[in-house]
Design goal:
By secondary structure, the protein is an all-alpha fold. The chain is 76% helix and 0% strand. The longest helix is centred in the middle third of the chain and has 22 residues.
C-alpha cells in the first residue's frame, strides 16, 4: 500500500474478518499484509474477530422463540409504517 493503509484496512475490517467474498484476492492480501505490520490495526482486528465470533456463537446456540420472532417482525412493520 502506498500510504500507511490504516484508513482502508479499518474501512474493510469487518467484512475482512467475516471472510466475505466481496473482496478480490488482491484486496484481501493487502489488508492482511497491512494488519500484520500495523499494531493498531492488529488490535482492531483482534477485537473485531472476538466480537464476530461471540455474535456467531450467540446466534447459533439456539433458535429464537416464535413469540419473540413475531414481536420483532411486528415492531419492524410498525416502524416501516410510520411516516418519515
Amino acid at each position: 500500500m502506498s500510504d500507511c493503509g490504516c484508513e482502508k484496512a479499518r474501512a474493510d475490517l469487518e467484512a475482512f474478518v467475516r471472510g466475505e467474498e466481496s473482496f478480490c484476492q488482491t484486496a484481501q492480501a493487502e489488508i492482511r499484509e497491512h494488519i500484520e505490520s500495523c499494531p493498531g490495526c492488529q488490535n482492531e482486528a483482534t477485537v473485531a474477530r472476538t466480537l464476530t465470533d461471540a455474535v456467531h456463537r450467540a446466534c447459533s446456540d439456539e433458535a429464537v422463540p416464535d413469540d419473540l420472532r413475531l414481536r420483532v417482525i411486528a415492531s419492524l412493520r410498525d416502524v416501516q409504517a410510520e411516516p418519515h
